[in-house]
Write a structure and sequence with these properties.
The complex is a heterodimer of chains A (about 600) and B (about 425). Chain A is about 35% helix and about 20% strand. Chain A is an alpha+beta fold and about 600 residues long. Chain A is elongated. In chain B, strands 1-2-3 form a 3-stranded antiparallel sheet, covered by helices on one side. Chain B is globular. The chains are: A alpha+beta (about 600), B mainly alpha (about 425).
């Protein structure tokens, strides 16, 4: 038993413990006060961030239609696996790679990219996974924290036409794209060529943002509405193109195994009905998850399938240039309709410029019909000698050559139409002379143009001297608006006189009736007018041109065909143009010519014999 | 004769009821709220089971008041021996839950023998010390025996892999020694390694500062040159050992756990996860909380073990500082009331038992809430009367019932003994 003194001492000890317990309880209370009241801001934000995830709702990309409302490009849903770096455990890389049947290094790389982009936001890990793999992942989701999926879409294309150079392809946005555009998110695909690139902003629309409440395992628990937060996606605009899908399909069929380009255009408006560049690529193989093998293949292919020859190829126009030469000559008063120039086998000026047209006298009309070089050498000589080079250059540019046509496609070329300033730059001041200029008269020398420019020039001749601006998109449509992004009114080229045009057009009609076109282009029911041309090619067979319009009296279409390494244009490019005229204007075509075109092989020509 | 109606300490009982109700509310929210869809069925049943345990405990609490208080003293060794056997049995045949092999299965219910070991250890140690004619731990033999009475179950608990409970047992040693007349300076010396160790984990500078203050305290209280020197040596040794452990001895993952305690954001998804989520839950509660069943951390399952070890976070998140401070204050009043009962009692056995019971409650409370608020490293231990758990609730109520019984019969007590 304790004695009294001890009892006091014990009571004191217990009092000390009371004080100690009370003090420590208050310390705990103070700590709780500190966390809940003083640091409240910090933890309440952290709490929100913990349980609310920001998710992007992609907008539906705009659809692409042909001029008759036929659906050409649409969207198809695909499953994309996403990773949330904050909750993902990288030791699962191997398991994930096994389940998805891809390289571990690829997963690791993707996770790293996702981390760099955002630690808390889910980013795409692997897009376009097939449904079986998706199901396997869903079954194993419990051991894959941080892995989710989102429904995305990929482009899907009509089987009817290829038109890869018109549509263009989409690729995942890269670092540069993010820097330039803050509304992009990792994994977003953006147009990298064709209409997809030019109308990217309009096609894409705007992604929406949704705030989702998730649990500790990252499972979404339905959307969570915070006032004024979260936005609905805005659908991309639909594109109604000027393309005629039937004609496009036919033209593509004719160009199989050929290298070159076709433009079919309405000469009165500039609307492009058909544009083919061959060889093409399979744009659908670039949709969804990138097929790396195919991508490498088309990038290294020596025939350059990604290159849009219709707007980017730069070639001498050859004899297709001659009608325009005639117009300029008439306007400048250097020739008249009756001016006769004899062909004696060539034009002698310092050297002999050869001419293989029949040896006889030619007025302008016949010079065009039979493509006499001498006539245009002489004319160019007169232009240059009379100091009219720069006037000539201006007039040529009025027809759309040597200028940017501002078509709604990327990387269209301006081509080269020289003036004295250009030649000073090109050859050096005083280092060029008449010898460099006379060739320009027959569309050779430093002159270079794209097939689209030749089509534009031909349109201006066909429509009575109106400069048109080619375009591919008729309308951009959203539920709220319709606009005409690139449709521009034709403008009269003021110096062109109708009587001059009529003369030149008669010459072009003659090409089909009695000139080089009489074999394959002449059609009794359609009045086609046109002009062949050969672009000399130092690397092989010459390139062939044929540009044409029909019907002669009231032209509805211009068809320009350009074939690389084709030899004589009159037996290579011209028959193709004829079939297209027939197909468009009659709905039928000459099957003999069709079989001829399909079985056609390039033939050697004599490069010196540039006149056709 | 004492009258239950008049002499029973209703204050303690009301506080006990208050804590049980807070516990039931929190368990309901942690298992029956929207969170239930993420929980297995057996955990969803926890609220109803706890309600049953509270009912059983209520019966126990009043039933025990009819027992003669001498029984606790007289049967203390027997009860101690039986619970030791039960502990050993558990060690061999028990069930492992969450890494700790401390459960015995009886049909649908599990029995955690270490919960009952606490009260029998307290009774046995108190009986041993107060039965000596000259109660004095000055006699080293008595000190050693009472130390062993506590240390044997401690070893068994450690063998069961339950370190949290082991700390509770060890904490009884200084409490009992303190009560039995250990000089304050010596008591301070005995707890100094724990304090210095805690601070050294943050920085060796804090450890040395703490050592300086404690040394000054020991010198002031005891005015003994030798004790002061021992304090300095033990303190410095603790600082050095902690530094060596952190840099040389511990495995990297163990170091990571220690560093995660001092800086949870060091490893937010690994060792620091629990701490961050717990702090976030409490901190985001603010003044008044997010509301019953509205806590996102709780209901979206960001909290680990939210019906047991982290139940304080549920209260903190859903009821805010208001709710958390009510819990803390009720608990504090409860502890102070028990210590007051101890002071009022003239019988040393009853005094020591009540004191020890209060100390056990306090240690549970301080470690549990300290873990949840990141004052302490995370040590898994339930919050008495609040956390889910039948064994713990019943054993804790049993301890209270014995204290109240001895208080009820305190006038008769001296006659019996």
């Amino acid at each position: 038993m304790n004695d009294i003194r001890n009892q006091h001492r014990t009571q004191l000890s217990i009092r000390v413990m009371q004080v100690l317990f009370a003090t420590l309880c208050l310390v705990v209370l103070g700590r709780v006060f500190y966390l809940q009241v003083i640091e409240y801001e910090k933890y309440s934000m952290q709490g929100e961030r913990n349980s609310i995830r920001q998710e992007i709702i992609p907008s539906a990309r705009g659809l692409v239609f042909d001029r008759n409302g036929e659906l050409l490009v649409s969207n198809e849903p695909i499953f994309t696996l996403t990773v949330n770096p904050a909750t993902y455990d990288t030791s699962n890389n191997t398991l994930l790679a096994k389940l998805l049947d891809v390289e571990v290094s690829h997963i690791r790389e993707q996770v790293k990219t996702a981390r760099r982009y955002s630690w808390y936001r889910s980013s795409p890990l692997l897009s376009d996974i097939d449904f079986t793999q998706f199901a396997i992942i869903q079954q194993n989701l419990w051991q894959l924290p941080g892995i989710g999926h989102q429904l995305e879409s990929k482009r899907t294309y009509t089987d009817k036409i290829n038109a890869s150079h018109i549509f263009g392809y989409l690729r995942e946005a890269d670092i540069k794209d993010f820097e330039n555009n803050t509304s992009l998110f990792l994994g977003d695909k953006i147009g990298k060529s064709g209409l997809e690139l030019i109308y990217e902003e309009r096609l894409r629309g705007e992604s929406g943002i949704e705030f989702k409440r998730v649990n500790a395992y990252g499972q979404a628990l339905g959307s969570f509405v915070v006032e004024n937060e979260g936005t609905n996606p805005i659908e991309g605009a639909n594109i109604i193109t000027t393309i005629d899908a039937d004609l496009q399909a036919f033209a593509e069929d004719l160009m199989i195994d050929k290298t070159g380009a076709i433009i079919v255009m309405n000469p009165n408006t500039g609307a492009i009905l058909t544009m083919v560049s061959s060889p093409n690529y399979q744009v659908d193989r670039l949709a969804g998850r990138l097929d790396r093998t195919y991508w490498a293949h088309i990038n290294s292919d020596s025939t350059r399938p990604l290159f849009n020859r219709a707007v980017s190829s730069r070639q001498p126009p050859g004899s297709t240039f001659k009608p325009l030469m005639g117009l300029i000559g008439l306007e400048e008063g250097l020739i008249t309709s009756t001016t006769n120039i004899p062909n004696t086998g060539g034009y002698q000026r310092g050297r002999l410029y050869r001419d293989i047209a029949p040896k006889r006298d030619y007025n302008l009309e016949k010079a065009i019909t039979f493509s006499s070089n001498t006539y245009f050498y002489k004319l160019m000589d007169d232009i240059a000698s009379s100091g009219r080079l720069n006037i000539w250059s201006e007039r040529v540019k009025d027809f759309g050559l040597g200028v940017d046509l501002e078509i709604d496609l990327p990387s269209s070329t301006t081509g080269i139409v020289p003036d004295s300033a250009f030649l000073d730059r090109w050859f050096g001041v005083r280092k060029w002379g008449l010898g460099d200029l006379i060739n320009l008269g027959i569309g050779q020398g430093v002159l270079s143009v794209s097939p689209l420019q030749i089509a534009t020039m031909t349109s201006a001749i066909a429509n009575g001297g109106y400069r048109i601006s080619p375009y591919l998109v008729e309308q951009l449509e959203t539920p709220f608006s319709t606009n005409f992004p690139n449709k521009r009114n034709p403008s009269k080229i003021d110096w062109v006189q109708k009587k001059h045009l009529d003369l030149v057009k008669k010459g072009m009609r003659g090409v089909v009736q009695e000139g080089s076109g009489r074999f394959y282009v002449k059609n009794d029911s359609i009045a086609i007018a046109g002009k062949t041309g050969t672009a000399q090619n130092p690397h092989g067979y010459s390139h062939g041109w044929f540009t044409s319009f029909a019907p002669f009296e009231n032209p509805e279409i211009v068809v320009t065909v350009f074939l690389e390494n084709a030899g004589f244009a009159s037996i290579s490019a011209a028959p193709i143009a004829r079939l297209l005229h027939e197909f468009y204007l009659q709905g039928t075509y000459n099957s003999y010519v069709y079989n001829y075109v399909k079985n056609w092989e390039p033939q050697e020509d004599n490069s010196d014999q540039t006149a056709e | 004769m004492a009258s239950i109606q008049k002499d029973l300490d209703w204050t303690s009982i009301l506080l006990w009821i208050g804590l049980s109700i807070i516990g039931l509310i929190a368990i309901y929210s942690a298992t029956q709220g929207p969170v239930s869809e993420f929980l297995p069925t057996f955990i969803q049943n926890n609220f109803w089971k706890q309600l049953l345990f509270v009912g059983i405990s209520l019966g126990l609490l009043f039933g025990i008041q009819f027992i003669n208080p001498t029984i606790f003293k007289n049967f203390s060794y027997v009860a101690y021996a039986i619970s030791l056997l039960l502990m050993v049995y558990t060690l061999f045949f028990g069930q492992e839950i969450n890494g700790a092999k401390s459960w015995l299965r009886f049909g649908g219910f599990g029995l955690q023998s270490s919960e009952f070991m606490k009260i029998t250890t307290i009774l046995a140690a108190a009986n041993f010390l107060t039965s000596r004619r000259n109660l004095a731990t000055e006699q080293i033999r008595y000190a050693l025996v009472s130390f062993l009475i506590i240390f044997i179950p401690t070893l068994l608990v450690i063998a069961q892999n339950d370190f949290g409970t082991a700390i509770i047992f060890l904490a009884l040693i200084p409490v009992i020694l303190f009560w039995s007349g250990l000089p304050y300076g010596v008591a301070l010396l005995m707890v100094s390694p724990a304090i210095i160790l805690y601070l050294s984990v943050f920085s060796w500078v804090y450890g040395l500062i703490a050592m300086g203050i404690i040394t000054a305290g020991v010198l002031f209280l005891q005015r003994s040159k030798w004790l002061t020197i021992v304090t300095v040596i033990m303190g410095s040794a603790t600082v050095v050992v902690v530094q060596l452990a952190l840099t040389k001895i511990l495995q990297p993952h163990q170091v990571a756990r220690v560093i995660a305690f001092t800086n949870p954001s060091y490893d937010p998804t690994g060792a620091g996860w629990n701490v961050i989520q717990a702090k976030t839950a409490i901190g985001s509660g603010g003044w008044t909380g997010k509301g019953f069943l509205e806590g996102t951390q709780t209901q979206l399952r960001f909290l680990p073990e939210q019906w047991t070890d982290f139940i304080f976070c549920v209260v903190g998140e859903e009821f805010g500082f208001l709710g958390a401070s009510i819990l803390i204050l009720v608990f504090m009043l409860f502890l102070l009331r028990l210590l007051q009962l101890s002071i009022n009692h003239k019988n040393p056995f009853a005094q020591l038992v009540t004191l020890s019971v209060a100390a056990v409650y306090f240690m549970h409370f301080f470690i549990n809430v300290g873990s949840a608020t990141a004052l302490l490293p995370v040590i898994g231990i339930p919050l008495p009367f609040i956390s889910y758990g039948g064994s713990a609730f019943i054993a804790n109520t049993l301890m209270l019932a014995i204290c109240l019984n001895m208080d009820l019969y305190k006038r008769e007590f001296s006659i019996y003994s």
